[in-house]
């Protein structure tokens, strides 16, 4: 009983987005404020990009990061947890897998980064999960709300731009309005965003999802100031050649939970991921030498992430 909605401690968790907005219409106003902000295209310098089934946390004084962000969220929901006193923030891209454990990790990371700072509250913001035909977004919303409601800390929901509030009708198709967001970790500002470049090891990180990883990967070591990928492994993919021989439309219809509203690059990214899996059938051997993570450090001259050679 620790989820706080519109300043009121809740005994019960809303079952769906419609219940939340009916009982607390103020969230419509909060969502509209976000939707009124123009979408920004964010470059790679100072960016920590978080992919699907990934999370990261940082504090305002982190010299390596200005923006944490993610995009391409259709039925997925972007979750931002922030400590109001310290400004420490965690961001995750949830598709419904591994939510319980990841929620606990997000809150723990923010609390660790907030140590020694003025007292504050844990604030929660949810963006994404449009009103899709199969209600996948509603399932993800319910999982997230239940996970936060079970947490022992009081957590304030300050934004819920999800469901109908993040949906626009184009022709006869429901479409997401916001696909991605960035968080300025220095100021706490959150804004709609797109990310043309998504940081290192993109195909490796996407391969983990494609092959069914059941956990949300924490990709940033705030103590070291380094991006950290892996280690992980997956089974070889049978029929990779068969997948690659299919049309873009076939890949879209069979590999997306929302084929009508995916960004134009969806099929291209899927092909790159499948090729990577085909070439790295045992990443524990070919990618993660001696079972070590791949670490990236911010290059002070260029601002880009560069691989730390071991």
Mind explaining what this structure looks like?
- With 310 residues, this protein is of the alpha/beta class.
- The chain has one domain: 60s Ribosomal Protein L30, Chain: A (2-Layer Sandwich), CATH 3.30.1330.200.
- It has helices at residues 17-23, 26-35, 99-113, 136-150, 202-210, 240-244, 248-255, 266-279, 283-286; strands at 3-5, 8-9, 40-41, 47-49, 54-58, 67-70, 77-83, 89-94, 122-130, 155-163, 167-170, 173-176, 181-184, 190-194, 217-218, 220-221, 226-229, 294-298, 305-307.
- A hairpin with a 5-residue loop joins β13 (181-184) and β14.
- α5 packs across α8 (266-279).
- It is globular and about 55 Å long.
- 38% of the residues are buried.
- It comes from Glossina pallidipes (Tsetse fly).
Highlighted features:
NTAN1, 8-stranded mixed beta sheet, 310 residues, 19 strands, alpha/beta, protein-N-terminal asparagine amidohydrolase activity, Protein N-terminal asparagine amidohydrolase, 60s Ribosomal Protein L30, Chain: A, 5-stranded mixed beta sheet
Blueprint of the fold:
Blueprint: E1 3-5, E2 8-9, H1 17-23, H2 26-35, E3 40-41, E4 47-49, E5 54-58, E6 67-70, E7 77-83, E8 89-94, H3 99-113, E9 122-130, H4 136-150, E10 155-163, E11 167-170, E12 173-176, E13 181-184, E14 190-194, H5 202-210, E15 217-218, E16 220-221, E17 226-229, H6 240-244, H7 248-255, H8 266-279, H9 283-286, E18 294-298, E19 305-307
Parallel strand pairs: 1-10, 3-14, 4-6, 5-15, 9-10
Antiparallel strand pairs: 1-2, 5-8, 6-13, 7-8, 7-9, 11-12, 13-14, 16-17, 17-18, 18-19
């Amino acid at each position: 009983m620790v989820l706080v909605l519109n300043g009121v401690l809740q005994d019960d968790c809303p079952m769906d987005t419609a219940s939340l907005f009916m009982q607390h219409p103020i969230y419509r106003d909060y969502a509209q404020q976000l939707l009124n902000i123009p979408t920004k295209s964010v470059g790679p310098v100072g960016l920590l990009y978080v992919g699907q089934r990934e999370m990261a946390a940082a504090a305002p004084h982190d010299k390596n990061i200005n923006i944490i962000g993610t995009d391409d969220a259709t039925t997925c929901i972007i979750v931002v947890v922030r400590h109001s006193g310290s400004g420490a923030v965690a961001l995750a891209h949830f598709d419904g897998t591994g939510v319980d454990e990841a929620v606990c990790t997000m809150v723990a990371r923010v609390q660790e980064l907030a140590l020694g700072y003025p007292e504050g509250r844990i604030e929660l913001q949810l963006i994404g999960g449009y009103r899709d035909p199969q209600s996948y977004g509603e399932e993800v919303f319910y999982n997230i709300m239940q996970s936060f409601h079970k947490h022992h800390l009081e957590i304030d929901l300050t934004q819920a731009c999800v469901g109908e509030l993040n949906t626009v009708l184009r022709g006869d198709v429901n479409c997401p309005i916001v696909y991605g967001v960035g968080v300025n970790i220095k100021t706490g500002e959150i804004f709609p965003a797109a990310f043309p470049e998504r940081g290192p090891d993109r195909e490796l990180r996407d391969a983990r999802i494609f092959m069914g990883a059941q956990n949300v990967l924490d990709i940033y070591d705030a103590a070291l100031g380094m991006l950290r990928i892996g280690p992980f492994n997956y089974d070889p993919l049978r029929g990779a050649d068969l997948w690659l021989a299919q049309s873009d439309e076939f890949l879209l219809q069979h590999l997306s939970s929302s084929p009508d509203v995916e960004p134009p690059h969806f099929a291209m990214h899927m092909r790159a991921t499948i090729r990577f899996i085909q070439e790295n059938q045992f990443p524990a051997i070919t990618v993660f030498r001696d079972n070590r993570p791949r670490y990236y450090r911010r290059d002070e001259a260029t601002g880009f992430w560069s691989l730390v050679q071991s």
